[in-house]
Design goal:
With 227 residues, the protein is mainly alpha-helical. The protein has one domain (8-217). The chain is 51% helix and 4% strand. It has a two-stranded antiparallel ribbon. The longest helix has 28 residues, at 32-59. The chain starts with 7 loop residues before the first strand and ends in a 6-residue tail after the last helix. Residues 143-150 have low confidence and may be disordered.
């Protein structure tokens, strides 16, 4: 059985055995510089998304420069979340950059769409995505979309990340099943965020793809056929 690859790829690597038992308790403090920067970037993200909306309605295309910046904001937010309450799965401090960092254990990429539906751009971010917003309200504690805070702001994702961190504190190891589940939930959040930000017309699947490697990444590597 094959799985259709979604154009938003979210990958992560559990940073063991390098994880310290205690550092996760103070990451909320260490990440404050990122919170300040991301709070500004997310204001820009919203403004640029509105500009992109107009451009899509008029031309059917997402301006490439705006697309790259907005993907970078999602990427930056994902790294901060993975470091903090969206995962607690690495002790490597997130880099201050919109670009991908191959040496960092959390990655996000979105395939650039050559053409987008003008009509869908008007409704997908508020109407069509509504069922997913209800799911995300459970996953991230009422935060309907990804935001620039340290992590996803609560909910099931943060609860499971804390469970993994507590097990790490007691045993010295982050439980792999918890990691796989947390990353799968994070992947769901980011797919919906990209869809709501008009980066793709392909509706996010109601499917939990667990594990650190995204199914689309496996497809690109040729490790399984695209379904």
């Amino acid at each position: 059985m094959t799985t259709h690859s979604y154009p938003v790829r979210v990958d992560a690597t559990l940073d063991e055995p390098a994880l310290g038992r205690w550092l996760w308790l103070v990451k909320w403090l260490l990440v404050l510089p990122h919170v300040l920067v991301l709070s500004v970037l997310w204001v820009g993200f919203v403004v640029l998304s509105l500009v992109a909306l107009v451009a899509i309605v008029v031309t059917g295309r997402y301006p490439r420069a705006i697309f790259d910046v907005n993907v970078g904001v999602l990427r930056w937010s994902w790294r901060v979340a993975f470091y903090t309450s969206g995962g607690f799965a690495t002790d490597r401090y997130p880099p201050f950059t919109l670009q991908d960092r191959p040496d960092y254990p959390a990655h996000l990429a979105v395939d650039y769409p050559e053409h987008l539906s003008r009509g869908l751009a008007l409704v997908k971010w508020w109407l069509l995505a509504l069922p997913h917003y209800l799911v995300l309200g459970f996953l991230v504690g009422g935060t309907v979309a990804v935001s620039g805070d340290a992590g996803w702001g609560g909910g099931l994702v943060s609860l499971l990340a804390v469970v993994g961190a507590v097990v790490l504190l007691v045993t010295g190891r982050y439980p792999r099943p918890v990691f796989d589940l947390v990353v799968g939930l994070d992947r769901w959040v980011l797919r919906v965020a990209a869809y709501a930000a008009l980066m793709t017309d392909e509706y996010p699947p109601f499917r939990l793809d667990q594990g650190g490697v995204d199914p689309a990444t496996l497809d690109l590597r040729g490790e399984r056929p695209v379904g």
